[in-house]
Amino acid sequence: MSDAATKPDAAPERELTDGFHLVIDALKLNGVETIYGVPGIPITDFGRMAQGAGIRVISFRHEQNAGNAAAIAGYLTKKPGVCLTVSAPGFLNGLAALANATTNCFPMILISGSSEREIVDLQQGDYEEMDQLAIAKPLCKAAYRVLHAADIGIAVARAIRAAVSGRPGGVYLDLPAKLFGQVMDAEAGAKSLVKVIDPAPAQIPAPAAIKRALDTLKSAKRPLIILGKGAAYAQADADIRAFVEKSGAPFLPMSMAKGLLPDTHPQCAGAARSTALAEADVVVMMGARLNWLLSHGKGKSWGAPGSKRFIQIDIEPREMDSNVEIVAPVVGDMGSCVSALLDGMGAHWPAPPPEWMKKIVDKREDNIAKMAPRLMNNNSPMDYHGALGVLRAIVKERPDAILVNEGANTLDLTRGIVDIHQPRKRLDVGTWGVMGVGMGYCVAAAIETKKPVLAIVGDSAFGFSGIEIETICRYDLPVCVVVFNNNGIYRGTDVNAGGGADPATTVFVKDARYDIMMRAFGGAGANATSPDELRRAVNAAMDSGKPTLVNACIDPSAGTESGRIGNLNPQSVVKKK
Ligand code: OXT
Ligand code: ADP
Ligand code: MG
Asked: Which pick of 124, 271, 329, 553 has the fewest CB atoms within 10 Å?
């Protein structure tokens, strides 16, 4: 006979759960394996408990870097990367990464603990008081706050769906401190959780849109395909390659789409960029936007006005006609669109006139031949070309390594010189040209892909997230960071315009030794003053798989202002005495 039967008045003992467990269970139910974050009030225990429950919790030194790690994890896996922060200041640190993820169309969820609603809303001065939801809203794709433990399942489901469906982006989830301690019946709690079914549903393009696009492409005399990071994100690599090859058109990869087809592919127009853009008559945009990086689809670099017709394949209908008329919009997810295009092309697709491809190939080979001798120099101090010639060969020998790249000259010259051979192997500053993504991207790339990572970062760029080399050492990640140290931003040669004792605004401590920082945390450090030394140091690092920082001494006068985008710098026309 049961106790309940002998003591009819005693309530049966109920198993309980709480907010902490429900959030963890909801994330696990939806396949979240890793959280990137920084602990503290009110989420310290949450991090511990998530780790205890088998989620990998990677602790950073600054939330922006954790957020960038989550964002790039989302890009690499097509699942939302999760970042966890404390309230107000931690939240704000993470918010920069959330906004950047949204701008770049990377799926990410920023989960922040927050203060007590009653006190925040009356502005009575709570610990880290801030109306975080209101602040996050305009900077991300969706933002939700959960007040009741019973709503956690739905909130996590909504956050996941919002991050990955349609155009991916950043989502904010606000979890007030009180929520974590809210208790409810365990069975009811388990029932309240939602496993998201088909979080990023296929978006099938309309047959008429496919026909319109193929008719336009068929009529082209000088077709060009521009591949963007939306195409790389889609992981429809084989079909995209088949489509490009069947079309016979040259293709131009945007920087993070490099490697979707190898940069050494016979149809690659990367080294004939100006010619391809100026002279194409039909341009197929695949997961790339006509934003500043493509001069908005108009102007001098696009040749004669009215000389282009654009086909655009994108999951976001509102992207169409955003800058110029799109004569053949194809709205849908990249995989479905490309597969429909391939079907529509049939067994035989007419090749474009051979003169067009020849023109591109001639220009490409000419540019490559002009560059070649510069890449072979062994000058000391190094210039960018000598250093990158070495790194280009290393990447060719290790095509599965992931390249992380930021800086100005360091960015632009690496993009042009270092060929990428496989999809999603190049991660960089993206749509905003933002410095500081470097070390966060390194950590997540190593963790999510289990592949070696090579970072090529300017000394300024490195400084934005450099302390995370401690994180890289702590988790013993196979990351080799090469700091292109030219003593400053763009160059290390500027002088104070006022003639005072302060250094110029763009220069740093001369001949700093970033490699010694790495050694402080138990990693390997090397100083390279010539391409030969650089080759040896980077090969040793990649062979060892150990955290390494190579301080590559670059001639401080070798760079140019703002790299290849100096034209965007406003210049004063007023001369003051
Ligand atoms: O066809 P043509 O003949 O024209 O030739 C083209 C190609 O065909 C050819 N090419 C090749 N030739 C031979 N072989 C090969 N393989 C080859 N490949 C290409 O080369 C030319 C040029 O090709 P490219 O590069 O494709 O074409 P182009 O015209 O340059 O492309 C245009 C763009 C716009 C697509 C391209 O330039 C691009 O993607 N640019 C991105 C630029 C960018 O985002 N820059 C970062 C921002 S700069 C600045 O803002 C910085 N800040 C401020 C700051 C930022 N950003 N963020 C934050 C949070 N705070 C502040 C700072 C602080 S940079 C910076 C730090 C800089 O200092 P560092 O120390 O870090 O770095 P260093 O400069 O090294 O010191
Ligand atoms: P890039 O900087 O490489 O030119 P952008 O970030 O400007 O690339 O553009 C990426 C585009 O890809 C965005 O317009 C986005 O809507 C689109 N996109 C993202 N994911 C997909 C997908 N799965 N299918 C189709 N388009 C996508
Ligand atoms: Mg520099």
From this structure: 124
Ligand nearest to the CA of 435: 1
Which tokens is 558 given? Answer: 């070798």
For the domain covering 207-361, report its CATH number: 3.40.50.1220
Q: Are 252 and 310 in contact (CB under 8 A)?
A: no
CATH of domain 16-192: 3.40.50.970
Query: Domain ranges in the chain?
Result: 16-192, 207-361, 376-564
Residue whose pair of structure tokens reads 């999603």 in the numeric block? 424
Calculate how far, in angstroms, residue 34's C-alpha sits from the geometric centre of ligand 2. 25
Cα distance between residue 199 and residue 277, in whole Å = 36
- State which of 106, 313, 316 you would mutate to test the pocket of ligand 2, scoring each by most atoms of that ligand within 8 A of its C-beta: 316
For atom 19 of ligand 2, the residue with the nearest CA is: 230
pLDDT in tens, 260-310: 999 999 999 999 999 999 999 999 999 999 999 999 999 999 999 999 999
Give the pocket of ligand 1 (CB within 6 Å).
Answer: 255, 270-275, 293, 367-368, 371, 407-412, 415-417, 429, 433-436, 458-461, 484, 486, 489-490, 559, 562-565
In this chain, the answer to whether the domains covering 207-361 and 376-564 adopt an identical fold is yes
For residue range 134-190, what is the model confidence (pLDDT) as tens digits? 999 999 999 999 999 999 999 999 999 999 999 999 999 999 999 999 999 999 999
Q: What is the dihedral of CA 285, 290, 294, 295, to 10 degrees?
A: 140
Q: Check residue 13 and give its pLDDT.
A: 83
Q: Residue 432 gets which letter from DSSP?
A: G
Mean pLDDT of 531-539: 98
pTM for this predicted structure? 0.97
Does domain 376-564 fall into CATH 3.40.50.970? yes
